[in-house]
């Protein structure tokens, strides 16, 4: 591992990244953020669009793995049952989930007035984490306009760190938030991309492992020595949402298998999926769409299960890299009642030296 500056996070594993190094390296995927940074209000909304069209009319195959279910997400039951997405994916804080789900429904109805009448209803898909340490979550500041703004901002230029839904999130007792990564692999003689986006809001500092280096233990022991205090911390709690996208032709069953490998990347960073942690992974493919109005669905040739290992490896590496990316790009934030989370770089100004010396 080589660390040269605060601008360059260590590259996890040996697989190459895509040109952007974000989930937008998967063709067609775009991301938009709406950030609320107003004193005690430190929160936001992030929207992931699987393609540039209407996801209700042209659904994408998807699957979800609930690694630890301490969460309040909306829409997972239908994804599990039908194996498709029919709205963009939205991320926000716990108490904002209902407002964002309503905004998703209204947006789908505007685009398709037959929803809920001649057609079936629509299933919104919202993931959440609790940002209540930094954000006045009781203010319920997130509203429909914030979803609309994030949706309108969606592009292939994807920001990481203290933005969008990640604005008020904490990770390993540091400033967490949004993280991105991608990996390019070869399977069955073809090149495919796996991208990951995480909403990182979990963990305690002594647990933090960065590319195999017990960085959190090093930082917590140094802090304890300085303050003449104990390194004992509270149990792990919080949540992480892991969104995995690929252009590989997979069906929902295979995507379920892919989503589960996100847990491997999460574990490498030091998480043990604590009792109070909501750890959820969703995977989708952009290789084909499922028309809303169809008598039959024609699928492209799917990868054989025996050819999935490169994608599994890319998923684990991408999720681990995305968590590092969230920590690496976050800035320190002061929010509700003066609560403050320092960024990784503000907590360890000698970060590069620490990491390089550990190697």
UniProtKB/TrEMBL annotation:
Q: Which UniProt keywords apply?
A: Aminopeptidase, Hydrolase, Protease
Enzyme Commission number: 3.4.11.19
Q: Which InterPro entries match?
A: ArgJ-like_dom_sf, Peptidase_S58_DmpA
- According to the lineage, what is the superkingdom? Bacteria
Lineage, top ranks: Bacteria, Pseudomonadati, Pseudomonadota, Betaproteobacteria, Burkholderiales
The record's top EC class is hydrolase
**GO molecular function terms noted in the UniProt entry:** aminopeptidase activity
Checking CDD domains in the record gives: DmpA
**Name this polypeptide is given:** D-aminopeptidase
Pfam families noted in UniProt: Peptidase_S58
Q: Which family does it belong to?
A: Belongs to the peptidase S58 family.
Coiled-coil stretches, from where to where? Answer: none
- The yes or no answer to whether the keyword Metal-binding is present is no
């Amino acid at each position: 591992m080589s660390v040269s500056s605060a601008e360059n996070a260590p590259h996890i594993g040996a697989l190459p990244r895509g040109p952007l190094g974000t989930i937008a390296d998967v063709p067609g995927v775009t991301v938009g953020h709406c950030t609320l940074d107003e004193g005690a209000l430190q929160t936001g909304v992030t929207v992931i669009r699987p393609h540039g069209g209407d996801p209700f009319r042209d659904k994408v195959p998807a699957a979800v793995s609930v690694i630890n279910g301490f969460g309040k997400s909306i829409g997972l039951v239908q994804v599990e049952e039908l194996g498709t997405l029919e709205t963009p994916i939205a991320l926000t804080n716990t108490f904002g989930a209902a407002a964002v789900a309503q905004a998703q429904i209204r947006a789908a109805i505007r685009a398709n007035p037959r929803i809920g009448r001649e057609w079936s209803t629509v299933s919104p898909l919202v993931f959440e984490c609790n940002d209540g340490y930094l954000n006045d979550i009781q203010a319920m500041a997130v509203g429909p306009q914030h979803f609309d703004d994030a949706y309108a901002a969606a592009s292939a230029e994807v920001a990481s760190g203290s933005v969008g839904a990640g604005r008020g999130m904490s990770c390993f007792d540091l400033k967490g938030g949004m993280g991105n990564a991608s990996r390019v692999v070869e399977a069955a003689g073809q090149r495919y991309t796996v991208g990951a986006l995480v909403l990182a809001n979990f963990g305690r500092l002594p647990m933090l492992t960065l590319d195999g280096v017990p960085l959190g233990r090093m930082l917590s022991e140094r802090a304890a020595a300085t303050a003449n205090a104990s390194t004992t911390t509270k149990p792990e709690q919080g949540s992480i949402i892991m969104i995995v996208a690929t252009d590989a032709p997979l069906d929902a069953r295979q995507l379920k298998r892919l989503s589960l490998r996100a847990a491997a990347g999460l574990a490498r960073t030091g998480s043990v999926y604590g009792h109070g942690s909501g750890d959820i992974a969703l995977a989708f493919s952009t290789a084909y769409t499922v028309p809303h109005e169809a008598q039959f669905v024609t699928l492209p040739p799917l990868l054989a299960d025996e050819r999935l290992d490169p994608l599994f490896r890319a998923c684990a590496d991408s999720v681990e890299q995305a968590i590092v990316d969230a920590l690496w790009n976050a800035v320190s934030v002061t929010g509700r009642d003066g609560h403050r989370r320092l960024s990784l770089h503000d907590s360890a100004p000698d970060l590069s030296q620490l990491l390089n010396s550990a190697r």
